[in-house]
Specification:
- This protein is an alpha+beta fold and about 230 residues long.
- Helices cover about 50% and strands about 15% of the residues.
- It has ten helices and five strands; from the N terminus they run αααααααββαβαββα.
- A five-stranded mixed sheet has the order 2-1-3-4-5, sandwiched between helices.
- About 25% of the residues are buried.
Length: about 230
Amino acid sequence: MRDMIHSGHRERLRQRFMTFGADSLCEHELLELVLFYALPRINTNELAHTLIKEFGTINNILNAPIEELMSVTGIGRSAAEFIRLLGDMCGEYDREMQVYEKLLTTKEVSDYFVRYFKDAASGLYLILCLGDELEVISRISFNGAKKSFSKCEFRHLVSDIMRNGCERVVLGIKHGGTINLKEDSISAAMLSEKLKPFNIELMQCIAVSSDEWKQVEFKSLLDIHSS
């Protein structure tokens, strides 16, 4: 009888979602419905309430470490991995939605990189290709050495940038700890000089760590090495 009640409740919840969308569901109901697909034989209503009580928000739940999720009664490894996978997919969706966003100021550029690099590993570089109205039309991400790039890397980067037909780019660099502006200025200067023959301008470089961001000033490599 109890299973039949839960089954009927889930179907009504599913129908409400299909008819009226996610806005028709409370936070715990939305989580309950999602969990049903990972745990079809468990009362996900009680579990949803427990997770929200433990972690506070759905965002915290989706970004919680797998081990912490598994510490909640009813969440095994499979369900924990499902939740984290969903969280990572949501994060990727958020990053995709940033494409075509206009970046008119340094603050807007830095905010973009801070959002993108939120859960990224250190050593990640991101080049944003900008359109005529300074809107993001494409992204190029790669892992690179902090002090220099190889000629092969530059050939691929310049080729990828030119393929987008843009004349302006901005560069973001993710740090795991202290931001090293000198190393970043060298990286930015190297990229800038490689792009100049193709009339592509590196407008800005922003370095991001876990708790701050800094604008990276860069000039020619000759000036850097002579200073």
